[in-house]
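Morning, I've got a small favour to ask if you have a moment. The fold is given in discrete form, as structure tokens running alongside the sequence. I'd be grateful if you could look everything over and explain what you see. No rush at all, and the record is pasted right below.
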Amino acid sequence: MSVGDAPGGSDRPRVSAATLAGALDSLPDGVTVVDYDFTLLYLNAAAAAFLRQAGADPEPMIGTRLDIALGSMLPEDYMLALRKAAAERRVVTLERHATPIGRWIETRVVPSADALTLYSRDLTLRHDAERRAADGAALLRAILTNTSDAIFVKDRAGRYLAINGVGAAAFHRTPDEVVGRTNEELLDQDDVDEMRAVEEEVLRTGRTVRREEMMVADGVRRWYLTSRGIWRDADGAVGGIVGIAANITDRRQREQSNSLLAEAGRVLAESLDYRITLDTVAHLAVPSLADWCSVLVRTADGSLETVAVAHADAERERAARIMVARYPNAPDTTSGASRVAATGESEVYTLISDELLSAVARDDTHLAMLRELGMRSAMIVPMRAHGRTLGAISLIAAESGRHFTERDLPIAEELARRSALAIENAELFQAAAAANRAKSEFLASISHELRTPLNAILGYTQLLSDGITGPVNEMQQRQLQRVRASATHLLGLIEEVLSFSRLEAGREEAALTDVDIAGTLEEAMALVRPLAAPRNLELVLVPPPARPGGEPLRMSTDPLKLRQILVNLLNNAVKFTDHGRITLEARVEGEQVVFAVSDAGIGIPNEHQERIFEPFWQVEQAASRRVGGTGLGLSVTRRLARLLGGDVSVRSAVGEGSTFEVRLPLDAPLVR
């Protein structure tokens, strides 16, 4: 039958061989026809082009067996496909790389009654695209697998479409267990609501949001630095959320630990009552460093006393205190805090098992209480200072899911070290306070003992001078005056020491009364004139202006202490002035009375102008100093001024003299 015959005498239009050949040649796919002896019967233009690209001439091949026409160029798998199609009379598909032309070719062998038709299609572009897609997928898998950050993709409803292993591990699950779920199914509700609000903002605005957020999964708390943006589908529509999350839990814990140490340092320096400060420190450690914290301090008998227990939940803390009260630390225990306090070496329990709890429990009730704490991990560090172990701090992880390791010890040990120093400082302060009280009591006692015989010396000297026991010649009178002057000077020193000891011990009190300021200035000047006269020093008194109507200016204060302040300053001026004028004046400034004592003496260097108010300190420190004294005058003066609600200051220049100013309230409540 010719190409143009219509089977069954059909009236359909005939197709000429030329037309059919032209149609086949226009196909992009190669068409080859062979008989069942594999003799080549037909090649269309595309099939011929394939052969030419392989370096073969297709024209002589028509009518020749393929194995003869192509020889070694005929691939073995190609012939196997032909034979299989011929033998089984079914379509066989072969996809192979044609090395001679460097192309991927798909060949479909279709058997018919008289021949095998081979349809060959160039799949190189598809293969290249698939290869690029495979390479891209492999690269994406490498990124997802090897990154230390969580990467995830969600749909608009918040359902996970994809997540890498790191991200799934944050939920304690595999990627397959996360995909298809939402955060509501994986996290605590508080975290979910906030995260969903952020994702809805991203979907609404299209802006990428970067933030730090906390996530709690299966009771384990972690911090992440997250970045969320939108992804679009092939049509450009917003498909959902793509995000990346970096675990910053360690960084946040370091920041919290450093902040804890800074705050603990401040707290420990605020008070010398170490029980109060240690309790505050224990609560500072929760929850930034641990979920539980207890502080044990060594007592005088060597046992350990729990002075602080802290937890974020007040009810759980109360339960722990009950347990501690019922089961105090046993002195003969050879584990836990007792061992740490004995050895001075820290211990870390990365995982606390039920077997460990059973080993330390004293009875079933104690075991039940320990289990109720939910302890997962712990570290116990010694409080050591200057070679002494003063106790131990226990830090316990529970609901946060932390697991302590050796890396966590430095922060805990530094906290314990600072706590130990606070305890030691408190002990030293108490010892110093006791010593200071003993010193003050000794000074007061010895001063009283010295004053009694001195009063007798002054009394009998006066009797001799008055001639009560017999006549006294002029020479004897001068000698008695010197004895009396020396005894009076010594009595003044003793009174100064007595005042200082009373002030130091906190036993000095002020008796407020109405005081005539001008009269008090006159009294102070009268007491100092005998000292200034032998040195030819001019004493000048500038009284305060009277009130309107001529009434003298008055103030509410202790007159004896005010006079002592002024006399001390005047005596000091006389001691350090060789010639010139010493002035005592008073003036009113606002609600204060300012008393000023100015001299033309040697002056005081700037660096010493505060130190002169320290007890027993003098500008001239050497044994060769020109003037004597206890070194207590200015210290007593400042303390008295502060007792009266004021203070003392000084202005001075070397070689130009000094001015001491005392500022006291006109009418103010007593300051103790």
About this structure: DSSP finds 19 helices and 22 strands in the chain. The chain has four domains: 17-128, 147-247, 266-496, 509-665. The domain at 147-247 is CATH 3.30.450.20 (Beta-Lactamase).
